[in-house]
Write a structure and sequence with these properties.
This protein starts with 13 loop residues before the first strand and ends with a helix. The strands form three sheets. A seven-stranded antiparallel beta sheet has the order 11-17-16-15-14-13-12. Strands 1-10-9-4-3-2 form a six-stranded antiparallel beta sheet, with no helix packed on it. It folds into two domains: 10-116, 3-layer Sandwich (Rieske Iron-sulfur Protein), CATH 2.102.10.10; 128-317, Naphthalene 1,2-dioxygenase Alpha Subunit, Chain A, domain 1. The chain has helices spanning 128-131, 149-156, 162-165, 202-208, 272-290, 313-328, 337-347; strands at 14-18, 27-31, 34-40, 46-50, 64-66, 69-71, 78-79, 85-87, 103-109, 112-116, 136-145, 181-186, 189-199, 214-224, 228-234, 240-249, 255-263. With 348 residues, the protein is an alpha+beta fold. The protein binds FE2/S2 (inorganic) cluster and cobalt (II) ion.
């Protein structure tokens, strides 16, 4: 699937930028191939419009915020959050009501500005941990990966990769047969349950306050269609480590990884910096491999393009649900690989 070619994906919320990064002015972002500019109005309410002035096409993100509006850096035209040009300094008595840029849905949640490019099909997911005082929030990563969001989502629910990708951290290399899992699909995602045995390396022993060399991850995790997940891990001593990760689609090959965690322990018990360091190691292990995979993931698996095994079930359910979504909105799956292989056939 080429994400920029499927209009229905524009109807989901994606975290695009941490709110704090907007304190010093507007910022650009590319979402599903669309260049947007995001800013905070005078009340701190986020706004998002097309990053292209309708006068001479300059990038509005190079401009600045004046009151609630964004000012173009080229000739100073101003736009409000609805994309309407509200000021043309050169003709102050003749505001042009035809001057307009496209505006998008914007909201603030969990420390991020979220954007939907078209009417959202489903709200930003509720995360109960965010409002429970028992949990602290730790912001972890905001960085670009050269991988498709769907690859990262599949990897999140793939019990078979621990033994190999994570053999240096928590994976059990000598036990490659993955734990059983259970999936409960719903309209815009699924709930996943498993109990995965893992190693408990020295760095984790201290963070988890557990002495044993191995432990179990009781996971009750969620996939939020299309490119969001919450891994909810409970360890045998009751400690909860919930990791929220969004692979916000920049374009067909690139994702912005937005990751934050909720922990049921305290800073005294486990320093946030140490928790981030361990999750950094694990995430780098995933990144190294994921960045080598094709970004044009086939949703329609009937082509036999990729081979599968039983533990691939979560990824296959994702592909099926996404394919059904496309069908529901009258879209067919856009593919780059298919076009390429037809070209190769012609050449040979
Ligand atoms: Fe924006 Fe001229 S290009 S005001
Ligand atoms: Co992994």
């Amino acid at each position: 699937m080429l994400v920029t070619q499927q209009p229905v994906l524009r109807r989901f919320w994606y975290p695009v930028i941490p709110v704090e990064r907007l304190q010093d002015g507007p910022k650009p972002f590319r979402l599903l191939g669309e260049e947007i500019v995001v800013w905070l109005d005078s009340n701190g309410v986020p706004k998002a419009v097309q990053d292209r002035c309708c006068h001479r096409s300059a990038k509005l993100s190079l401009g600045w915020v004046d009151g609630d509006a964004i000012v173009c850096p080229y000739h100073g035209w101003s736009y409000d959050g609805a994309g309407t040009c509200v000021k043309i300094p050169q003709t102050p008595d003749r505001p042009s009501n035809r001057a307009k840029v496209r505006a998008f849905h914007a909201d603030c949640k969990y420390g991020y500005v979220w954007v939907a490019l078209a009417e959202p099909l489903t709200p930003i997911p509720e995360l109960p941990e965010a409002s429970e005082p028992a949990y602290r929030c730790i912001h972890q990563f905001y960085e670009v990966w050269r991988t498709a969001g769907l690859r990262l989502m599949e990897n999140s629910f793939d019990n078979a990769h621990f033994s190999f990708v994570h053999r240096e951290s928590f994976g059990q290399f000598d036990k490659p047969i993955p734990a059983q899992l259970h999936i409960e699909p719903h309209e815009y995602g699924f709930r996943f349950e498993t109990v995965a045995p893992v190693n408990n390396p020295a760095a984790q022993k201290q963070l988890l306050r557990m002495d044993s060399d191995t432990t179990e991850r009781h996971m009750t995790s969620d996939w939020f269609m299309p490119f969001g997940r919450k891994l909810h891990i409970r360890y045998p001593n009751g400690l909860v480590h919930a990791i929220v990760t969004y692979a916000t689609p920049i374009d067909d090959d690139t994702s912005m990884i937005c990751q934050w965690a909720y922990r049921s322990d305290t800073e005294e018990a486990a320093a946030a910096a140490d928790i981030i360091a361990f999750d950094r190691q694990v995430t780098e292990e995933d990144k190294r491999v994921l960045e080598t995979t094709d970004s044009d993931v086939p949703l329609d698996v009937s082509s036999g393009e990729e081979r599968h095994m039983p533990s691939d079930q979560p990824g296959l359910v994702m592909r099926k649900q996404l394919l059904q979504l496309l069908q529901r909105f009258g879209e067919t799956e856009a593919r780059r690989q298919v076009a390429l292989s037809r070209l190769q056939e012609k050449v040979s």
